[in-house]
Every structure is written in C-alpha cells, then in structure tokens.
Amino acid sequence: MAFGIGRAGAILSARFPDPNPRAVVSNGGTSQAAPALTAGHQRRSVGPVWDVPVPGDSSGNRKKKMGEVVGLQALTDHAEGSGGPLIFISAAEPSADLHGEALIRATLRRCSNARFVGVAGPRMVEAGCEPIFDMTRHSAMLLGVLKVVGQGIAMLTTSDQHLRRYPFDAAVVIDSPVLHLALSGRANALGIPVLYYVAPQIWAWGSSRIHKLRNQVDRVAAILPFEQDFFRHHGVEATYVGHPLAERWAVQTVDEKIVADIRASGGPIVALLPGSRTHVVQEVLRGQLEVAERIAAVFPKAAFGVSVANKQVAPVVDSVLATSHLRVRRFPQCRTELVRAADLVLVASGTASLEVAFNGRPMIVMYNASRVFYHLFGRWMIRTPHLSLPNILAGREIVPEFMPYFTSAIPIAERAIELLRRDDLRERMMDDLKAVTEPLRSTRASERTAEILLGLVERSHS
Fold it and tell me: What is the torsion angle, in degrees rounded to the nearest 10, for the CA atoms of residue 330, residue 336, residue 337 and residue 341?
C-alpha cells in the first residue's frame, strides 16, 4: 500500500496532463463519463511526431543502447508487413518485471510472432521484450518515490516518443499508477487500446483516479477476486484473472531438509521479512528486531531468521542487524523454507504478506511510513478499514496489522508473545488464511491476461 506518492503523482500529472479529457455529465447526481475511445477507432495524430535519436559512430554504424530498440525502422516494417502484433509494454518495478515476463511468455505461446517493445527490466528482456527504458533500478514506495521523479519523467518522455512514432497494436501497463495512468492517457489519445494489469488500488485510496482509469483504459486484468465487481460497478471493463504470483507459489518447490534444519535450530521459530526496498527495510527491520528481542526475553530458546530479499538490501540488513545483540540467521535464499519453518512471521506490508498467507503461516504485518505525511494526506485518501492484503481479502482482521506506522514495538511484541503462547490462536489464523487464499490457487493469471491482450489486438483490427 503506497501512501506517499501523491506529490510525485501531482508532479508527473503536471508534466503529462490528461491528453484526452472527456466531458462528464450529471445524471441524477452521479457522474458519468462520455463514451471511451474504442479499440477499433483509427489512431489519430496528437501534436508533432518527435524524432527519436538514433545513435551511431562516425562510420555510420549503429550502436545499441538503452532507449533504442534494435531496428527501429523494423517496427514499422513489422506492422506493415506480414509480422504479428506490435505491443508496447511497461513495467516500472521489479515485481512488475516478474509479471511482465510471465505475460510475455504466455502471449508468445499463443502468438509466436508477437513483438514486445517498451519499459522493461531484465526478466522481461530475457523473455523477449526489446527495452527502451529500465525503471526497475529506480523503483520506490512512499516518499522515496520523490527521488525518482526525474527518471519517471524521462521514462514517460521516451515512451511517448515511441508511442507516437510507431504503429503499436496495443499497450500493456503493469501496476505503478503514478507513472502508468499518465502513460495510458498518452496511448489512449493515440487510439492505441490499453490493458491495465495489476490495476491501481482505487478501492483502498485515491478514489478520484477512477475517472482516469475509466476514460483511458480499455480493459483491466484484476488480480484480486473482489476487484472485478468493484471496477465494473464504476464503468471499467474488468476481468478477474487471478494473482500472478499465485502461479509461481503454486508450483514452488520446498526443500524439506532445509525446513527441518531451521526447525531444529530452536523453538519457537520466528521469521523476519522486512521487505525488498532499502528504505522500507531500514524502517521496518529495526522494529522487527525490537519485537524479536522481547520475544527472546520470554522464549530463551527462540530462533530467528531474516530474509534478505536481494543484493540491494543486503547491506542495509547487515547494518541494522549490527545494532542488535540478538543472534539472527541471514537467509539470502531459501525464503520459502524460512517461512514454512516459522511458528510466526513478522512481515512488512505488501505482496510478501500474501505470500506468507499462501504458505499458511501465522503472521503479524508491520509497516512504518511517514507519520507526518500520513496525518497530512494519507488518512484523507485511504478508504479501506484494513491495510494488509490478508485482511482486505477477508474483509475483517484475521492477522494483526500495525500500519501505516507504529510508535512503539511493545504492543506488537505483546501480540506476538500471545500468539506464540497459544496454539489455538495460531491454528485459527492458519484456517482463516487457507480460506482467504483458496480462490487464488486455481487461477492462471498470465494465461488469462494474454488472452485478454490478444483479444484487444484483434478488436483493434476489426
């Protein structure tokens, strides 16, 4: 849940205003948008077509670098010749890069001559996407996003140039609404049908964005069960496809020997999952360690392990651990085994809490956002009574959540100690988590989203 991106969104919106505002008429006190541009409409020119620099050396030989697709002229030739669909795709965060990779592979299984070009991280590039920009190295949450506004503007400018110049059959944007609501507006204004995968959590905060989604996006691939009805109620054509990570979790392999080794190290076992972004780890891990120290005072034989999500956060994890006298085992790998072995997981808010739920382990969700920003802006924007994904899916509190910030680790530690003392509470929580995640287990998000995407392409040619 992102609470601190409002100012960044305002900056980007000012730089890239809605290029195709539609009249809104009143009907009995409710607002209705004028009909959106359909996928079959002819593309129209919006302003001058910008030249995209083509780097080269003095001999005229072309050099490939980020921002240039190999064979730019071939993009036009691809669409005008016998090639398959030309699809623009954009993912701005590592998690979206993962979802984009799976979507590209699923689409190519159905349409092997499709061509993907766009804002891509290393996984999407490996799957076959031709990159014009990489935002995954600059991703951020909360106030950290303000530090990468410049990169966001550069990404939008580069994307806009390619969307204007080349005949894309469809555009896919994944998550990151601050960037992608602006980008979807540019694509829509050019008559390119837009698919939004992992849509903005408008049901939780920032409800004013619904008109942009309705006016600028042709289809939404919703990843949570209740989102389909929510978006359709607000005039957005949405289809529930399932959560993309559930596909991976459903087939993940677990080394039971490692699980047994972790369990043999003591008892109870407490896992710390502080997040995958450096500034989040910096804030959350300190609180998790305070809770762990209080648990250790009550359970002297308790064993603790911390998941090191990636090499970027490893130095932060090490520096925070160095401030504590507690012995904590580092797990740069074997994250699933650590979670499976745990009697209790202290997890940062976000997708990780859903991963823990999918593995059926008791948890406490923690987050430590800017208190000042939350009281000035966040509390007026948030519309849901619960902030962690397990509780949102359940519609009630089934796991303790301490967010968007906490002022003391004491009440968190008290809840943790109570859970560790009472098997019945943990068993009830595990039953609730199983029920909440059951609808996600049989879904095939990438395959279903690929079907929607190719349907948009077909509509654009009808």
Answer: 100
